[in-house]
UniProtKB/TrEMBL annotation:
Stated name of the protein: Exodeoxyribonuclease 7 large subunit
Organism of provenance: Chitinophaga polysaccharea
GO cellular component: cytoplasm; exodeoxyribonuclease VII complex
Top-rank taxon: Bacteria
Reactions catalysed, as given in the entry: Exonucleolytic cleavage in either 5'- to 3'- or 3'- to 5'-direction to yield nucleoside 5'-phosphates
Main location: cytoplasm
Similarity comment text for this entry: Belongs to the XseA family.
Example GO BP: DNA catabolic process
One Pfam family here: Exonuc_VII_L
GO molecular function, one term: exodeoxyribonuclease VII activity
Length: 520
């Protein structure tokens, strides 16, 4: 009979011949001084019979293995396969295997179990790393070796090194980041602790409305994302195009990359691309730590927002993307908050415009009121001045007329005296002269008064024509710069801000060009 037992990097051979038991132990890298070299344990049967009971044989095996492995433990690096977990009892049953690093073939394999403290350590491992203890994970575990007469060889997991698993994944991630900055230096560079990529240097549109979503069709994270967008408190609506694919498994990175290519080839003017998935174990996110996906996201010409449910660490894709969030819901909230920020800026600008308009209206209303009062006062002053002048002219006319009348009366008396002393012809001639003088006097007085009244009417009309309201009604406009009325364009340059006041409106304008008028 020949039996071979393998434990990680250790193998044992048990050879039974003619009632004698020979155990050969070959050790590879074992830390125990008892098993550092090849040794032989020889046990001879105490009986002289040709056969023994099975219990005697298993007892001798148990005794031999106990002498070698009693009170000893080993830290073993291996992969987990054939894992099964019995939750009610808290038992883990699995195989530990070692694979050839080049061919991938199994070099060593042994069955193992974990219960009690070992199961507690596995739970702690899952909590700290976010990695479920399952098939195809690479672990560093502390084990003990024992032999039971009924259950056979037993490898028991006593502890598991969380730092080994976390460190291994982090090492792979850092290698990927180094490769990205080395091979893609034209669109990826590192600045401090941050990675500057072509994608995260893109500007998000002021309002995000059209989205391309890369996710799994049955993902709960996608449902959360969609629900958050559809039921936002502000009533925003979004146009969403779904690009469903598998978002789990390191080998599926090419599928996600292909979906990005499909988005680019669609030529649809998306505002942003959203990559989302629900939560899971740390190894479920290895897809997002791959080189090909990190490179594709870093150089993608549309801003990429990630919400891949990884609560503990950033993935390579997060670092390469425009904006990274922890969960699909957070990604949706980010988009809503971005749009809300724009709306608030518009509301704020509207409030500022209203306040400024009210201030300007109040200020210009006061200016117009002051100008109106000034015009009325000046008109009154002019009217009073010309009224006094008119009274003075009237007094002059009255006194002049009286003097003329007196003079003519004297002349009339003289003529009357002459008439009395001269013939009737002279009287008649003098009467004609008197009538002509009276007519001339009346005509002169009427023309003089009409002339003065015409001057007064002219001034009154002039005052009315000088009124800004009449000027504006005739199609003219008043031009203000810095709240000052300007009468020539000497100080106005292109780009200057002016205000044009017409009869029915006031307009703000910016001077684009200026052409000087030449007068010959």
């Amino acid at each position: 009979m020949f039996v071979t037992i393998s434990v990680a990097r250790q193998s044992k051979s048990l050879f039974i011949y003619s009632g004698n038991i020979y155990i050969f132990w070959i050790s590879y890298g074992c830390h125990s001084p008892q098993v550092n070299n090849v040794f032989l344990i020889f046990m001879r049967s105490m009986t002289t019979s040709a056969s023994i009971k099975l219990s005697v044989l298993t007892g001798k095996i148990q005794q031999a293995l106990h002498q070698v492995f009693a009170e000893q433990t080993w830290w073993v690096v291996a992969d987990v396969t054939n894992h099964s977990f019995y939750r009610q009892k808290g038992y883990h049953y699995f195989d530990l295997v070692e694979k050839d690093e080049y061919s991938g073939g199994i070099v060593a394999k042994v069955s193992a179990v974990a219960w009690g403290n070992g199961a507690i350590r596995i739970s702690e491992f899952e909590f700290v790393t976010g990695q479920q203890f399952k098939n195809d994970i690479h672990v560093l575990v502390r084990v003990s070796v024992s032999y039971h007469q009924v259950h056979g060889l037993q490898i028991t997991l006593l502890d598991i090194d969380t730092n080994f698993t976390v460190g291994l994944l982090e090492q792979q991630k850092q290698q990927t980041l180094l490769r990205l900055t080395t091979e893609c230096a034209d669109f990826i560079r590192k600045a401090g602790d941050r990675y500057i990529t072509r994608n995260n240097q893109l500007a998000l549109p002021r309002v995000i409305q059209r989205l391309a979503v890369v996710t799994s069709g049955n993902s709960a994270g996608y449902q959360d994302f969609k629900h958050t967008l559809d039921h936002n408190l502000f009533g925003y609506t979004f146009a969403i195009d779904n690009y469903f694919t598998v978002v789990q498994g390191e080998a599926k990175a090419e599928l996600v990359q292909q979906r990005l290519i499909d988005i680019y080839n669609s030529q649809v003017p998306y505002d942003a691309v959203v990559i989302i998935r629900g939560g899971g174990a740390q190894t479920d996110f290895l897809l997002f730590d791959t080189f090909i996906l990190g490179r594709a996201v870093a150089k993608f010409p549309i801003p990429v927002i990630t919400g891949i449910g990884h609560q503990k660490n950033e993935t390579v894709t997060d670092m390469m993307a425009h904006t990274a969030t922890k969960t699909p819901t957070k990604a949706a909230e980010l988009i809503i908050a971005h749009n809300r920020s724009f709306e608030e800026s518009v509301i704020s600008a509207r409030q500022q415009i209203l306040i400024r308009a009210q201030q300007m209206f109040s200020g210009h209303f006061q200016s117009l009121s002051y100008l109106n009062s000034s015009i009325i006062n000046q008109a009154r002053n002019l009217l009073a001045t010309h009224k006094e002048a008119l009274h003075a002219c009237n007094n002059v006319v009255l006194h002049t007329s009286r003097d003329i009348l007196l003079n003519n009366h004297r002349e009339l008396i003289a003529v009357s005296n002459a008439v009395l002393s001269k013939p009737r012809m002279m009287v008649s001639n003098r009467r004609n002269d008197l009538e002509n003088a009276i007519g001339k006097f009346r005509s002169f007085s009427r023309l003089f008064i009409q002339s003065k009244r015409g001057q007064v009417a002219h001034y009154d009309t002039l005052f009315k024509l000088m009124s800004p309201a009449n000027i504006l009604k005739r199609g003219f406009a008043m031009v203000y710069q810095d709240d000052q009325v300007i009468s020539n364009a000497a100080n106005i340059q292109p780009g200057a801000h002016i205000r044009v006041v017409m009869q029915d409106a006031s307009m703000e304008a910016t001077v684009n060009t200026k052409t000087n008028n030449t007068h010959e």
